[in-house]
C-alpha cells in the first residue's frame, strides 16, 4: 500500500510541476493589430530571432530573441520600424491560442506600445 501512495504522490507532484513551466514560443507565429500602422502584423518566433511582417509581407522589424522560462529579451536589428534604443524585457503568458506580453522594462515606447495587445496564434510560418 505504501509504494502505491508514494507513486500517486509522485505523479501528482510531477503533473503540478509541469504546469508551472512556461511554454516555449520557439517556432510559433502570432497575429496582432497595430493601431499606429492600421494593419494586422504577424510575429514569427524562431529559436533566437523573431520578425514581424505586415499583411502585405513587408518586414516591419527583425530582432534577436532570447527566451528564459517566462521572460523574453528583445533587441531589434533592422526592418522598417526597428527600436535602436536598447533591449526590451517582457514576461509572457499563454492562454490557449492567446499570447500576452507584460512589460518588465523597455527604453523603446513604440515597441512597448506595439506589444501591449493580445496576440492570436496562427499557423502562418515564414522562414
UniProtKB/TrEMBL annotation:
Signal peptide residues on this chain, from the entry's feature table: 1-22
Keyword flag Signal: yes
Superkingdom of origin organism: Bacteria
UniProt KW keywords: Signal
Name assigned to this protein: Uncharacterized protein
Organism of origin: Puia dinghuensis
Organism lineage: Bacteria, Pseudomonadati, Bacteroidota, Chitinophagia, Chitinophagales
Amino acid at each position: 500500500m505504501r509504494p502505491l501512495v508514494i507513486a500517486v504522490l509522485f505523479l501528482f507532484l510531477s503533473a503540478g510541476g509541469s504546469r508551472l513551466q512556461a511554454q516555449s514560443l520557439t517556432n510559433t507565429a502570432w497575429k496582432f493589430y497595430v493601431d499606429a500602422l492600421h494593419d494586422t502584423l504577424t510575429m514569427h518566433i524562431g529559436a533566437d530571432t523573431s520578425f514581424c511582417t505586415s499583411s502585405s509581407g513587408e518586414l516591419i522589424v527583425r530582432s534577436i530573441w532570447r527566451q528564459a522560462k517566462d521572460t523574453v529579451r528583445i533587441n531589434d536589428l533592422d526592418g522598417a520600424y526597428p527600436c535602436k534604443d536598447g533591449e526590451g524585457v517582457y514576461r509572457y503568458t499563454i492562454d490557449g491560442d492567446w499570447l500576452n506580453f507584460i512589460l518588465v522594462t523597455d527604453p523603446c515606447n513604440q515597441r512597448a506600445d506595439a506589444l501591449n495587445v493580445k496576440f492570436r496564434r496562427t499557423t502562418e510560418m515564414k522562414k
